[in-house]
């Protein structure tokens, strides 16, 4: 009897003390830092640079990591425009993660006009630490008929990422950035703007930058916004704000539409006119 008991105890102690035996499989991703990205703003004026920042975050108890790398392909043309997003001039590329920032898919240092970027050779320390990779991006609209041309709105998210190394978790979420025109020198009458759609949650939004800095008179402004279905057919029209907003002389004003009740058939919105009166 003593022999049997000793044998059972020996087997139990051997299994319990075996370094290669796992009662519960280890979560390997818990030992990898997370990758996220964000724009410094959600809307700006066409042609203006915006900082795109990638953040690598390690967690308490996680080991240091090296040879971190990823590629981000910037959004290209959209249904609203043939113009895509690209690296601004100057790029102002910086990193606190070490490594280098290249033109997407190459070993050439990133430069203005590039439509993507690659980061490689990065590292991060052990424990709860963070480092960043930043670059400035922009987009321009072609000079076309202002009454019919469209504005630029982009989503840069998870699907834009590639070549993410195995020691880095791609936890990137969709980030939106829209470029709005500036109407120069407000005068009496109707001014036209281009489409501006920022709709990650299904709620239409736009930001219109109105420039009245070169005049000596105040202007009262309302905007007519037309909703279109998937085929591009106009199905809804809204005037915002309900009462004109006053843009005083020698100033600029950002007019934002949000919180509008939307018919599900509306897929995009177009600013069809800006009505200006003294």
Characterise the protein shown here.
By secondary structure, the chain is mainly beta. It folds into two domains: 28-179, Immunoglobulin-like (Sandwich), CATH 2.60.40; 181-277, Sandwich (Immunoglobulin-like). The chain has one helix at residues 2-17, and strands at 34-39, 43-45, 50-57, 65-73, 86-87, 94-95, 98-103, 116-124, 130-138, 152-156, 161-162, 169-170, 175-180, 182-183, 189-191, 206-211, 219-228, 234-247, 252-257, 268-277. Strands 1, 3, 5, 6, 9 and 12 form a six-stranded mixed β-sheet that branches. It has a four-stranded antiparallel β-sheet with strand order 7-8-4-11, with no helix packed on it. A hairpin with a 5-residue loop joins strand 17 (219-228) and strand 18 (234-247). The longest helix is centred in the N-terminal third of the chain and has 16 residues, at 2-17. It is elongated. It starts with a helix and ends with a strand. Mean pLDDT is 75; it is low at 5-26, 143-150 and 183-203.
Radius of gyration: 26 Å
Indicate the overall shape: elongated
Enumerate the spans where pLDDT stays under 50 for 5 or more consecutive residues. Answer: 5-26, 143-150, 183-203
Give the count of structural domains: 2
β-strand percent reads 35-45%
How many helices in DSSP terms?
A: 1
Largest sheet: 6 strands, mixed
Query: Could you give the order of the helices and strands?
Result: HEEEEEEEEEEEEEEEEEEEE
The percentage helix is under 10%
Q: Which class best fits the helix and strand makeup?
A: mainly beta
């Amino acid at each position: 009897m003593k022999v049997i008991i000793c044998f059972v105890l020996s087997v139990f102690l051997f299994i319990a003390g075996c370094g290669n035996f796992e009662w519960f499989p280890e979560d390997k991703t818990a030992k990898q830092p997370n990758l996220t990205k964000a724009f410094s703003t959600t809307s700006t004026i066409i042609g203006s640079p915006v900082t795109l920042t990638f953040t690598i975050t390690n967690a308490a108890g996680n080991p240091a990591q090296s040879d971190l790398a990823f590629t981000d392909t910037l959004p290209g043309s959209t249904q609203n425009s043939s113009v895509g997003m690209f690296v601004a001039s100057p790029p102002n590329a910086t990193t606190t993660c070490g490594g280098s920032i290249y033109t997407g898919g190459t070993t050439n240092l990133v430069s203005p006009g590039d439509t993507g970027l690659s980061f490689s050779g990065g590292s991060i320390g052990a424990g709860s630490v963070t480092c960043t990779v930043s670059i400035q991006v922009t987009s321009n609209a072609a000079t076309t008929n202002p009454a019919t041309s469209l504005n630029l709105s982009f989503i840069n998210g998870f699907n834009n990422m590639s070549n993410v190394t195995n020691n880095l978790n791609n936890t990137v979420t969709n980030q939106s950035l829209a470029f709005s025109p500036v109407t120069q020198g407000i005068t009496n009458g109707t001014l036209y703007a281009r489409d501006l759609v920022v709709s990650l949650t299904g709620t239409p939004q736009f930001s219109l930058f109105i420039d009245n800095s070169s005049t000596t008179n105040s202007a009262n402004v309302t905007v007519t916004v037309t909703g279109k279905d998937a085929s591009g057919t106009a199905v809804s029209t809204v005037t915002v704000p309900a009462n004109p907003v006053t843009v005083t002389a020698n100033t600029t004003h950002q007019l934002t539409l949000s919180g509008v009740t939307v018919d599900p058939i509306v897929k995009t919105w177009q600013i069809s006119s800006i009505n200006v009166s003294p």
